[in-house]
Amino acid sequence: xxxxxxxxxxxxxxxxxxxxxxxxxxxxxxxxxxxxxxxxxxxxxxxxxxxxxxxxxxxxxxxxxxxxxxxxxxxxxxxxxxxxxxxxxxxxxxxxxxxxxxxxxxxxxxxxxxxxxxxxxxxxxxxxxxxxxxxxxxxxxxxxxxxxxxxxxxxxxxxxxxxxxxxxxxxxxxxxxxxxxxxxxxxxxxxxxxxxxxxxxxxxxxxxxxxxxxxxxxxxxxxxxxxxxxxxxxxxxxxxxxxxxxxxxxxxxxxxxxxxxxxxxxxxxxxxxxxxxxxxxxxxxxxxxxxxxxxxxxxxxxxxxxxxxxxxxxxxxxxxxxxxxxxxxxxxxxxxxxxxxxxxxxxxxxxxxxxxxxxxxxxxxxxxxxxxxxxxxxxxxxxxxxxxxxxxxxxxxxxxxxxxxxxxxxxxxxxxxxxxxxxxxxxxxxxxxxxxxxxxxxxxxxxxxxxxxxxxxxxxxxxxxxxxxxxxxxxxxxxxxxxxxxxxxxxxxxxxxxxxxxxxxxxxxxxxxxxxxxxxxxxxxxxxxxxxxxxxxxxxxxxxxxxxxxxxxxxxxxxxxxxxxxxxxxxxxxxxxxxxxxxxxxxxxxxxxxxxxxxxxxxxxxxxxxxxxxxxxxxxxxxxxxxxxxxxxxxxxxxxxxxxxxxxxxxxxxxxxxxxxxxxxxxxxxxxxxxxxxxxxxxxxxxxxxxxxxxxxxxxxxxxxxxxxxxxxxxxxxxxxxxxxxxxxxxxxxxx
Length: 736
Prior knowledge:
Radius of gyration: 42 Å
Number of helices: 27
Shape: elongated
Strand order of the largest sheet: 8-9-11-12-13-14-15-16
Number of domains: 4
Largest sheet: 8 strands, mixed, barrel
Number of strands: 16
C-alpha cells in the first residue's frame, strides 16, 4: 500500500465516501447475520463472524476505501449491543487488522489480487492472516479489558480462542472472496458441471453417513479426510476459484453435518467435536490452497509457453504457426458449411525506410501500433496474425456482402495509412494487400497463402492498394522463380557478360565514354532480356553480387584495353537502388580498384535519381566517399524522380542523364520538349554536363544540338556491342 498525500476533489471525496458507505453496509449485514452462526462454531459472542474475513478481502480489493468501510460497518454493528466507547475501539481494531493484512500481503506481493500462487498462499497462510488475526484479537480483548468487559484471568485463553477462530475463517473465506472480487465470467463445459455437481452431492452424503454411523469425536476426524479428498479433486480438476469454493463448501457441510447429528450444541461433547473439526479444517484448507496454487502455476506456465509458441511476442498477435493452424481449421469448416473464406495478405509500404533510418526500436513501435489498428477495425470472428517482418494476414470468414473483402481491404489501407506521431515526429506508412478466395483460388492453406502473397506483390508493383489473385499471376510467378533460380546459377556458371554502348560528345563528335551493360547469355545460347531479369535481381537482392560482377568485369576490361595501348575512354557502371543502400558498396569498389589496377578517374558511376532521393543525408555521405576515390558521378534517369533544385545543387555530381522516356516523343510532345529544355538549362546553370540517352533519329539529335546537350548515346550511334566490337569506336570521330 502506497502512502501518498494528495487533496481530493469534491467529486472524488463524494465517490470515496459513497463506496465506503456501501462497503460498510455490506460489512454490517455480514456481521449481523454472523451472530446467528456464532453458537454453532463455538466462537465468542463478540466475534464479527465472518465479517472480519470480509474486511481483509475488502482491504486488498479496495484499499483505503475498503478499510474505512469496514470500520464504519463494524462501528454500526457493535453499537447495537454495547457502549460507543467499546464499539469504537473494536471498529478501530477491525480497521487496523484489515490494514495490516493488506500491508503484509502487498509487502511481499505488490500486485497480488488473488491467492492463486504458491508464494502468495505461503504469505497469506503463514504471515498475513496469522499476524492480522492476532493483532485484531489482542486489540479487541484489551479494549474489552480496559472497559471492564473481561478479566485478566481468562484473557490469554480468550485471545487464543479468538485468534484461532478468526484464523480459521480467514483460511476458509478470504481466498474465495478475493477470487470472486477478481474473477471474470467463468464458463464451464457440461462435463465439468456434471463433475462438480456429483462431487458436491457425494460430499454431502459421505459426510452425513460418517457422522450418522460413527463415533462423534472420531467422526470429526474422519470427515476431514473425506472432505480433503474432494477438495484435492477440485484442486486437480478445476480452476482455483472452484477449489476455494470447495474449501468453503466443505467447511459448511462439515459443520452442518455436525449440527444435525448432535442434540445439544451447548454440550461439552459438541464443543470437543467442533474443536476437533476446526483443527482438522485448517490443514484441509491449506492443503487445498497449496495444491490448487501449484497446479494453477503449472497451468499458467503451460499457457504462457503456448502463447509464446503461438503468438508474436512483439505485437501479441497470433504468429505464422498459429495462423496456419487456424486457416486450415477455417477451410475445413468452410468445406462442411459450403462457404467462402477470404485471405488478405498485408505488406506495409515505406516501413523498411523507417526501420532502417530511425532504428529497430521505433520500427517495433510502428508494428505494435499497426497491430492495434488492425485489431480495432476487425470483427470479433475475424482473425489477424503477424506472419513476420512487416507482413500481416487476415482470415475473413462469413462475409456479410459479396464485396465485403474489397471494403475491408480499403478500410485496412485507410487506417494503416493514417499518420502517427512517435518520439515527437510524425510518420506514415501504407499497405499493399493481396486477396485470395477459398475455394475459387485454392483448397488448401499453403496454396491460398501463396496466392494471396502473389496478389500482394502485384498490388505493390502496380501501386493499386489491393489486388485479387488470378491464374495469370501464378504463371508469372513461375516464370519469375525460374529466372531467379537461373540467375543464381548464371553467377556460378559465368553466363553473365558485359556489352558496351559508346557516348559521343556533340561538340567534337568523338567517343568520350562507354556504358557497361550486363547481359545474360545461357550456355544453351538463350539471351534473356535485362528488362526481365534486372527487376527480379533487384527484388531478390541478387543485384548486389551482379553489380559487383559488373564493376569488376568493367574494370578488368578497361585495364586490358589500357595495357593493349588502345587508349580507352572512361567506362561507366550502373549502381542499382538496392546496391546503393548496401553497406559494403564503397569497400567493394575500393577493393576492385586496387586488385584490378583500375584508374579510378576513368571509372564513372551512374546512380538512378530515385535511389539518391530515398535518404538524402546518406546519399551525400556515399557520394562524398565516391568522390574521394576520384570517381566521376552521374545521375541516371534524371527527370523521373522527385529531386528539386536545392538537392541537385548539393550533390557532388559531374553529369545528369536525361531518361529515354522524355527523348522518345520530344519532337511531338510539347511537355517532353519543355522538360528536356528545362533539364539542360538547369544543369548548365549548375555547371553540370548533360547526357541524353535513347537517341535513335537525326531529328532528335538536331533538337538536342540546338539546346546545347553535351553528350548522347543510343542506337543512332551504336547499339550495345561486345568488348571487341566497341574497340573500333576508340579515338575516332563519329559521323552524325
